[in-house]
Structure of ABC transporter ATP-binding protein:
Amino acid sequence: MSTATVRSVSERLSAAGTANALELRGVTKRFGALAALTDVTITVKPGERRAVLGSNGAGKTTLFNCVTGDFLPTSGTIRLFGEDVTNFPAHERIRRGLRRTYQISLLFTGLTVFDNVYLACRGVSRGRFSMLRPRKGDTLVQSAYELIEAVHLSDIAQIKVSELSYGQQRQLEIALALAGAPRFVLFDEPAAGLSPKERAELVEILTNLPSHIGYIIIEHDMDVALRVAETVSMMHNGRIFKEGLPSEIESDPEVQELYLGGGHG
């Protein structure tokens, strides 16, 4: 990332003081009689990398939807860098440095890798409504190429997205999520459908993100999640039932019995 980008991020982090990156307190989400989330409380520090694990239906994606503003919680509070954003719409949370990837790819397949990343950078910039073409030396162009390099796609920057492999499209989605110097990112199953080689590359990309960018990753692949996370929260039936270090979660008998059939090793 450029020096100007890093400086901007540093200034924003300083302004946030010692506030936690994300705080959920008693968050509950009901759909009629169904409780998808029940009294979820999570605290994530600035720069922290956390995995949220659990079987299908545990409430992980609903949790993300509440954090991003796609759903408003039925009760409870959500704070982002100390600010109560519980009732904020999604775009206001984006303005405050929150980003997200989705399980299903959301890309402009008829455009190139560079075009997709440039548009993402333009979309969160002050000049996003300008009709002028970017000029040589445009800082957004530079930022786009830096993000493309960060996700290992420099060699195919001018290739149309429709020609990329599924794994390369997932890497591109990470670049889009990093546009505009985010402070916190939610990664929704980024390893789903990837080959072993692509998963190894994903681990390298996430591990090498700038230290000021914290994130939560939802992931069914325990090997990926436990390699890129510093802390782990386990969900079951819409609740957080266990938290700890990756080594603690991996060796926990209850976790092994409930999610891994007792045979993970």
